[in-house]
Design goal:
Order of helices and strands: HHHHHEEEEEEEH
Oligomer: single chain
Structural class: alpha+beta
Shape: elongated
Helix content: 40-55%
Number of strands: 7
Radius of gyration: 21 Å
Largest sheet: 3 strands, mixed
Number of helices: 6
Amino acid sequence: IKVVLNQACEKVLREIHVKGRYQRLIHMGQKKNKKLDEFSLNSWLDERIGLYIKFDESHTQAFEEDYLLSLQNFLDPEGLINVQEYFPEKILLRDKRSLEIHYDENPWVEGYIQDFYGMNETPTIGKGRIPLVLHLLGPHKRPVQVTKDLVSFWKKTYKELYSELSRDYPRHHWPQNPESAPPLLLKRHLS
């Protein structure tokens, strides 16, 4: 049970501290609530972890959901900030698939260039205030570009990469106007 406890605790703390999703909420909470400081937050975390010790492994999911809800209530007692609305876990793509948002100092997503076809602006979080850093992958699953400005990428860099990518990966879909193209990975999906 200790292993499960440690894994779940690490997962919850990673969600809150490493991914930083709630760090932004903490920052917003501190602006609204001057009494919220590092000591009160750490005390709250200690109390929640103490409560977690009482849970067994069959309640891990319930604890994690309660923990995150409780943290939101602690930071924003008036319920003015909808975490999922401001800082979602994923962004929805045009083809109804989604990409996980990685919350670091600069929140980012990673996906194939083709995933972003048809987008004419950079996806954002924080109600449109925070542009995501896009790690645009080539067919080799390595970034060919990291950018916060998708419009400039389509206008300049994509045009420069176009001949190389279409030559090296002829089966992949490389449209002339990616900002208006359907998000298809392979040419055979065009018909």
